[in-house]
Specification:
The complex is a heterodimer of chains A (172) and B (515). Helix content of chain A is 33%, strand content 13%. Chain A has 172 residues and is of the alpha/beta class. Chain A has a single domain, classed as Rossmann fold, CATH 3.40.50.12280. In chain A, strand 4, helix 5 and strand 5 form a beta-alpha-beta unit. In chain A, helix 3 packs across helix 6. The termini of chain A are far apart. Chain B has 17 helices and 15 strands. In chain B, the strands form five sheets. Chain B has a five-stranded mixed beta sheet. Chain B has a three-stranded antiparallel beta sheet with strand order 8-9-10. Chain B has a three-stranded antiparallel beta sheet with strand order 13-14-15. In chain B, a hairpin with a 7-residue loop joins strand 3 and strand 4. Chain B is globular and about 65 Å long. At the A-B interface, helix 1, strand 1, helix 3 and helix 4 of A face helix 4, helix 8, helix 9 and helix 17 of B.
C-alpha cells in the first residue's frame, strides 16, 4: 500500500485544460433551449453506442477518460443505460446488423437528448461507405446534433464535440 | 517444404512468409487435415470464394500452420450445390468460420451438426450470398427479424441473462446469453456478427493500393499488424521486397502497437477489479506513448504508416533517441506497477484461478496468440517463422501455464518488456537507405500471403489478385475467430460479476471477426 500511495503522490495531477466548443462541428442548430443545456452541461450523462466501428474510435473515447483529459472532472460521465443518458456518443458506420439496436437505444433515451457522431465513419460512412451491410453515416439512422471527423478523432476533438453539443450556439 | 512430407503437390507462394499452396479434391480434405493435425498443425483460417467468372465453380480455402510454415489449401467445389466435408470435428475453431463461409459465399459443410447462421442477421435474406460475384454490392434488403436458436439450458433454478449487443461500457457490440444458477455461470453462448460491414466485398471494389487503408481498419487496435500482413500479401503477389530500413521500421511499429495495447489492457484489468489506480497509471503511460507516436509518425495509432512497398514515414533526426528516452521512462514505471499488482491482495484474489483455460483444452480448441501463450501454447510467429527484421533478433517468447486472468496479465507484462528490448535493438541498428520501393502491378490470379504476430495473435491476409491491380478475393483473418469460443469455456463455473474481467483479459476484437 505504501508503494501505491507513493506512486500516486509522485504522479501528481496530470489533467490538462479542456478544449473550447467548436461551432464548425454543429450539424443542427439549437435543438435544445439554452436553459436545458445549462442544466445538462453541469451533469451530463453519456451512453456510448458502437454501431459498427473498426474500434479505433473506442480507443480514443477510452483515452478521453484517461487522467490527461479526465472528462469526469467536467461533470461528464459515461452511464450503463440509455435510460440514464442525456447524450448518445455514436461511433462507426452503422452496420445494418446494428441499425435496429441503435434505433432502439435512441428511442430508450429520454427527451431532451443529444447525439454526437464520432469519427469519419460516423460523419460520412468513411471507407466502408454504404452497402448491403452498412447504412453509412449515423445521420442516416438517427438525428445527429454534432459530428466530429477524424480517423479516429483525438480525445481533444471528442471532448470538443461533446462540449459543443451541450453549449448553446454563440450569439444564436 | 512441409507439404512434401504430406504427399500433396504444393507450390511455394512468393513473398516473405514461408507458405505453400496446394489444390486438393474435396475427398482428400479430411484425411489431409487429420494427417496434419497429428503433426501439430493449427487451423489459422477458413474461407470461401466464387470462381464462377473464371470458368469454375466455387472454392473452399483452409490455411493451416505447420511446424515449417503455412499451408494454404484450395478445394474446388461444384457450381451447383457447392458442398465439402466439414472439418469442425477436427478443428473446433472451424465451426464459426464454416458458418460464415456459408453466409457469405453459400458453400455448405457436410457432416457438421451446427448449421445455424453466423454473420447473417436480418440485413440480407437466406439464400442470398454477398460474396458471390453476381451479387450487386449496392443492393439493399428490407430489414428482417433475426431469429437465432440459442441453446436452452433447463433445470431447477436455471435462468438466462441476455446481454447486448449494446453493452454497459465503451465496448464493441455483441450478444452474450448467460445461463446461470444463482451467480454461477452454467453456460455462455455468444452471438456475434453485429459489426459485419461488408469489408471483404468492399476490398473487391478497390485497387491493391487503395486496399491498404481498408486493411488498416479491419480492427483498429491492430492496424499495424493488418497493414503489415496486407503489405506482405501484395508484395508477395507483385514480386517486391521491402527495403531493409522499411522492414526495421515495421518491426518498431508493431512493437509500439503491442506496448500501447498491453498498457491499455493492464490498466483496464486493474479497473475491473476496482483498482482504478491501475487504470489511471497505465493510461497515463499509454497516452505518453500515443503522443510520441503522433509526433514521430503523424498518427497516434500508427494507421496508414505501413504501405505496400515499405513505410510511409521515416524516422529522422533524434526520433530514435526520443523513443529510447520514452522507454527509459516507461520501463521502471511498469516495473513498479507490476510489483504493486503482484503484491495487492485484492488484485491477486480476483486474478488467480479466474477464467481458467487449461492447456489441454486450449490445445484441443486451437486457442492462439497472447491468450494461447497464457495457456501453455508456445507459438509466436516472431519466434516460429521470423521474417525481417525478426530473423536477426532472437525474440524470447513469453508464456505461462496458468491459463487464468493472472497468467494473461503476466504474459502482457513479459511481452511489454520484450517489445521494449526489441525496440532498443532495432533502433540501435537501423539500416540506412530508402523506406519504400515501387510495387509492380501483379498480373491476375497471383496469390499473396501476409502473416504477422499482432499483439493479440497471428493476423492472416490471404490475397488472390484480379486483372488491372485489383482484388479477386481477399480474406483478412483476426485471431479473435479462434479465441472467442474459448471465452465461452473460460467463464464456466465463474460468477457473472467476473465476466467483464475475464472478457477484458482476452480482449478480443469484434470488428476483426465480424468483418
Amino acid at each position: 500500500m505504501y508503494q501505491l500511495l507513493k506512486q500516486v503522490v509522485k504522479t501528481g495531477l496530470v489533467s490538462e485544460a479542456p478544449p473550447a466548443p467548436d461551432e464548425a462541428l454543429r450539424e443542427i442548430a439549437d435543438r435544445l433551449g439554452e436553459t436545458v443545456l445549462k442544466h445538462l452541461g453541469r451533469a451530463l450523462a453519456i451512453r456510448h453506442v458502437d454501431a459498427g466501428s473498426c474500434n479505433g474510435c473506442e480507443l480514443e473515447i477510452h483515452a478521453a477518460n484517461s487522467p490527461y483529459y479526465n472528462l469526469e472532472r467536467l461533470g461528464i460521465k459515461f452511464v450503463a443505460s440509455p435510460r440514464h443518458a442525456d447524450l448518445l456518443l455514436v461511433t462507426g458506420p452503422v452496420s445494418r446488423n446494428m441499425e435496429e439496436a441503435l434505433r432502439r437505444t435512441y428511442d430508450a433515451t429520454p427527451e431532451p437528448k443529444l447525439v454526437v457522431a464520432i469519427g469519419d465513419c460516423g460523419c460520412t460512412g468513411g471507407i466502408f461507405g454504404e452497402s448491403y451491410a452498412s447504412c453509412g453515416r449515423v445521420a442516416n439512422v438517427i438525428p445527429v446534433d454534432v459530428a466530429v471527423p477524424g480517423c479516429p478523432p483525438t480525445p481533444i476533438a471528442i471532448m470538443q464535440g461533446i462540449l459543443t453539443a451541450i453549449t448553446a450556439r454563440a450569439g444564436g | 517444404m512441409p507439404a512434401s512430407e504430406l504427399h500433396v503437390e504444393a507450390e511455394r507462394i512468393p513473398g516473405a512468409v514461408p507458405a505453400v499452396h496446394a489444390v486438393i479434391e474435396p475427398g482428400a480434405l479430411r484425411e489431409l487435415c487429420e494427417q496434419t493435425r497429428t503433426r501439430g498443425a493449427r487451423l489459422v483460417a477458413l474461407w470461401g470464394s466464387d470462381e464462377t467468372r473464371r470458368g469454375a465453380g466455387f472454392a473452399l480455402h483452409v490455411a493451416l500452420a505447420l511446424p515449417r510454415g503455412l499451408l494454404w489449401l484450395s478445394v474446388p467445389l461444384a457450381h451447383e450445390h457447392p458442398r465439402y466435408p466439414g472439418i469442425a470435428d477436427l478443428f473446433p475453431a472451424a465451426n464459426r468460420m464454416q458458418r460464415a463461409a456459408y453466409d457469405l459465399v453459400g458453400i455448405h459443410p457436410d457432416g457438421n451438426p451446427d448449421h445455424r447462421k453466423w454473420l447473417r442477421h436480418g440485413a440480407w435474406p437466406g439464400g442470398v450470398f454477398p460474396l458471390r460475384k453476381d451479387f450487386d454490392p449496392a443492393r439493399r434488403f428490407a430489414p428482417a427479424g433475426d431469429g437465432y436458436p440459442f441453446v436452452k439450458v433447463e433445470g431447477e433454478g436455471v435462468h438466462e441473462i441476455p446481454v447486448g449487443p449494446v453493452h454497459a461500457g465503451t465496448i464493441e457490440p455483441g450478444h452474450f446469453r448467460f445461463s446461470i444458477v444463482g451467480e454461477e455461470i452454467l453456460r455462455l453462448e455468444q452471438r456475434l456478427g453485429y459489426k459485419h460491414k461488408g469489408i471483404e466485398k468492399r476490398f473487391e471494389a478497390l485497387t491493391l493500393a487503395e486496399g491498404a487503408r481498408l486493411a488498416g481498419r479491419v480492427s483498429g487496435d491492430s492496424t499495424v499488424a493488418f497493414a503489415w500482413a496486407y503489405a506482405q500479401a501484395v508484395e508477395g503477389a507483385a514480386g517486391t521486397a521491402p527495403p531493409p530500413r522499411a522492414a526495421a521500421l515495421r518491426g518498431c511499429l508493431l512493437e509500439l502497437e503491442r506496448i500501447a495495447n498491453h498498457l491499455g489492457d493492464l490498466g483496464y484489468l486493474g479497473n475491473d477489479v476496482a483498482l482504478s489506480f491501475g487504470f489511471f497509471q497505465f493510461w497515463r503511460l499509454k497516452e505518453d506513448l500515443l503522443r510520441l507516436n503522433g509526433e514521430l509518425f503523424g498518427h497516434r495509432y500508427l494507421m496508414d504508416t505501413i504501405v505496400p512497398g515499405g513505410v510511409a514515414r521515416d524516422l529522422g533526426g533524434d526520433a530514435a533517441a526520443k523513443i529510447v528516452t520514452a522507454l527509459d521512462r516507461l520501463e521502471p514505471e511498469v516495473q513498479r506497477l507490476r510489483a504493486i499488482y503482484d503484491e495487492h491482495a485484492g488484485v491477486q484474489d480476483r486474478f488467480m484461478t479466474t477464467g481458467q483455460v487449461a492447456p489441454e483444452l486450449a490445445a484441443r480448441m486451437g486457442l492462439t496468440g497472447l491468450a494461447g501463450r497464457a495457456s501453455g501454447i508456445r507459438h509466436d510467429l516472431r519466434v516460429d517463422h521470423p521474417v525481417a527484421p525478426y530473423d536477426t533478433l532472437q525474440v524470447r517468447i513469453a508464456a505461462a501455464d496458468g491459463g487464468d486472468v493472472a497468467a494473461r496479465a503476466a504474459v502482457r507484462f513479459d511481452e511489454l518488456f520484450e517489445s521494449a528490448r526489441l525496440l532498443r535493438l532495432l533502433l540501435a541498428h537501423l539500416p540506412g537507405g530508402p523506406i519504400t520501393v515501387p510495387v509492380a502491378v501483379p498480373p491476375a490470379r497471383r496469390l499473396g500471403v501476409g502473416w504477422v504476430e499482432g499483439w493479440r495473435g497471428d493476423v492472416l491476409v490471404a490475397l488472390d489478385t484480379a486483372e488491372g491491380g485489383r482484388i479477386h478475393r481477399l480474406h483478412p483473418h483476426d485471431p479473435s475467430w479462434q479465441n472467442w469460443p474459448l471465452l465461452e469455456r473460460a467463464v464456466l463455473g465463474n460468477i457473472v460479476p467476473d465476466f467483464p474481467l475475464i472478457n477484458k483479459s482476452f480482449n478480443l476484437s469484434y470488428s476483426g471477426s465480424d468483418v
